[in-house]
Amino acid sequence: MVLLLSPCKRAVKYINRELGWLSFNARVLQEAADPQVPLLERLRFLGIFSSNLDEFFRVRVATLKRMKLLGKQARLPFGESPKRILEEIFSQVIRLQNQFNSIYAGILQELEKEKIHIINEKQLTPQQGQFVRQYFHDQVRGALVPLMVDKIEEFPYLRDHAIYLAVLLSDSKRKHKSRYALIEIPTDVVPRFLVLPSEDDHDYVILLDDVIRYCLDDIFYIFPHDSFLAWTVKLTRDAELNLLDDFNATMIEKLEKGLKQRRRGRPVRFIYDASIDAAMLNYFLERMKLKKDSENLVAGARYHNFKDFIHFPTLGRNHLRYPVVGRVPHPDLKPNTSILQAIDRRDILLHFPYHSFDHFIDFLREAAIDPKVQEIKITLYRLAKNSKVANALINAVRNGKKVIVVMELQARFDEEHNIYWSDRLREEGATVLFGIQGLKVHCKVCLIKRKENREVKMYANISTGNYNETTAQLYGDHCLFTCDRRLTHELDQMFTFFVNTYKVPNYKHLLLSPLTMRNRTEQLIRREMEHARKGRPAAINLKLNNLADKQMIDLLHQAALAGVKLRLIIRGACSFAPVSERVSAHLEIRSIVDRYLEHSRLMIFWNAGSPEVYLTSADWMIRNLDARVEMATPVLDPQIRNDLIQYFEMQWRDNVKARLITAQQDNPYVRNDLPPFRVQEELRHWLLARVQEATPGHDGTPSRAAASVQPMG
Question: Does residue 74 have a pLDDT over 60?
Fold first, then answer.
């Protein structure tokens, strides 16, 4: 493990961000290994681990490889040579991959106990083989494009994210020279898994890879060879977009060119089945111009693109999945009642995925048809493929509303969806802005202007997550509705800033990157340090996705030394860990990985007993604090502020799915003598209890989750 030493005298040690991220993915792998997790969900976590690792190589490893070319200059942003970091990354990845293979083998055995069998082409019975061959001819064969690579002058281009069968055609009588072929496995048009007919209450599943292997003789029947063997290979490419300085091109045109370049990005990892024929592997590497001793080469197992296992068929075994749970109704949002009127009465906080994202869709739909609504302004970062949000905005335009959309086109891997919807919105008549040059717009805000009593009143939604109905079912996020003038006035100023970037507003309440967030947050931390020095209660609670900004880490380190109690919940990469007893006495860092992705970001500053609470879109990383448009909003409603404090306390109480983040990055589980408390289950009980408490005739008994939590002091 690489620990990077700070030059400051306090000897803060930073955990390299990339290695901290691998430690997070190791926590995902822990879920796949946990026997308490339903069996098919464990298979799904293997898929998530694999998908995460693919993106890690496409982005972070690719960046390090590019930086390595700069030599000594590359040490500055990393504090360590990219070459050494890459060596440690590949060492950790090999270790994790070995764990992955062992966990998968164990899951296969557990599946067999449940009468579920994942079989390959060599294990098919004659009846199953007949079924597979018929399926191949009906559904698969027409989607295949076999390439005889030994007869093609230029080696075929391998698509990023795709998997291929490298096929060896040989003749057992040795009369004919061996041939090499390449077949892309068409998982974009044919499902990865084929469920075979059940036999004696047992279910059998075969992968598409093996369906093709079984029928290779039906593909290459024109050749005189009698032996056909195939191994899976996969190439991962650099996903960085290069937006050329073409002053005559629009942002969309530049991005479309960049997306085409991404598809042909530099190779950063070539994975192959370790059992592949050696001569064939050498031939492929030579034709692809990859060095045999390159760190880009990874010997893997039989199957690649394990992300497809996220969608492994249930086969009627619902007990092997997490139970399906309905959304919790919100006591302030009754069906078929005006959501704008509800917001006018009080601020409303939604907890996703426990509450329904439909409440936000209803917010837009009501605004679209309300005759008094004049204008809708919104920032969009990651839209769903079939976006209800975009459709609601289009409906608003058609109803004569002025709609202003700040669309962030460079939301990595969602660029194509965003380009599509920006075109659709512009075609319908919406004003679409592409943010501020050089800064990604990452904050999530929607503002509605409504004419009421000869005045314009504003209603706002502020979210920690994207306006995406798909991810809202899987991500833990917060979503605040408010018409508080102190906030809506400044939000309106923010949207004006998007139009007139020379006109920088003066924000009293909002913290906005890259203008004020870093300095204002530092002031809040230093205020806690001053409280601690004067003997007052001083504490900071943070819930973030990533913590890697060294300047903020140094300040937190100083706060711990000053006696401020720090409790941090960091889901992903964390570059900070207690490294001395003096710091450990006031600092603890945890991470929660469970059924839902913990995505909400929350800051609580105790302020000598008058706590200030902020919801934010920003992690504490250089890019978020200095190179993006991010926002943190103070929670001004006293009840919601208390709810969020209680929410954090419940998160901190988790002793089932919480892990400690330590300098060793070994992810030990949080265990204590208290009864088991799994926060993602208890939050649902807590929210259901809030509905009951709002019901007339309720006796006032607190929920079981709330009754067991003591607030910070």
Answer: no
Gyration radius of the chain's alpha carbons: 28
Contact status, residue 553 vs residue 12, Cβ threshold 8 Å: yes
**Domain boundary pick from 306, 329, 351:** 306
**Active-site position among 161, 442, 478, 599:** 442
Residue 470 CB burial class (10 angstroms; 0-12, 13-18, ≥19)? middle
Length of the chain: 713
- Give exposure, 106-136, as e/b (b: 16+ Cβ within 10 Å): ebeeebeeeebbbeebeebeeebeebbbebb
Q: Is 442 a catalytic residue?
A: yes
Q: Which residues contact 358 (CB under 8 A, 6 or more apart)?
A: 469
Q: Give the type of residue at 239.
A: A
Decide: residue 67, CB within 10 A, 0-12 exposed, 13-18 middle, 19+ buried: buried
Residue 21 CB contacts under 8 Å (≥ 6 apart), including other chains? 56, 60, 572, 573
CATH number at residue 302: 3.30.1840.10
Give the dihedral sign, CA 136/140/141/146. Answer: negative
pTM, to two decimals? 0.90
Give the pLDDT score at 245: 45
Pairing of strands 597-598, 475-482: parallel
Strands (E) located in 66-162: 116-119
| 36 CB neighbour count, 10 Å cutoff | 9
Residue type present at position 580: S
Residues 6+ apart with CB under 8 A from 661: 23, 568, 570, 574, 577, 589, 590, 591, 667
User: pLDDT tens digit string along 413-462?
Assistant: 557 777 888 889 999 999 998 877 778 889 999 999 999 998 999 999 99
* Dihedral sign (CA 278, 281, 286, 287): positive
Contact at 8 Å (CB) between 277 and 179? no
Segment 398-427, tens digit of pLDDT: 999 999 999 887 655 557 777 888 889 999
CA distances from 3 to 125, 620, 662 (A): 54, 19, 12
Closest to 688 (Cα-Cα) out of 699, 702, 677, 673: 702
What CATH number corresponds to the domain at position 401?
A: 3.30.870.10
| Domain enclosing residue 447, as ranges | 339-499
Is position 323 within any domain? no
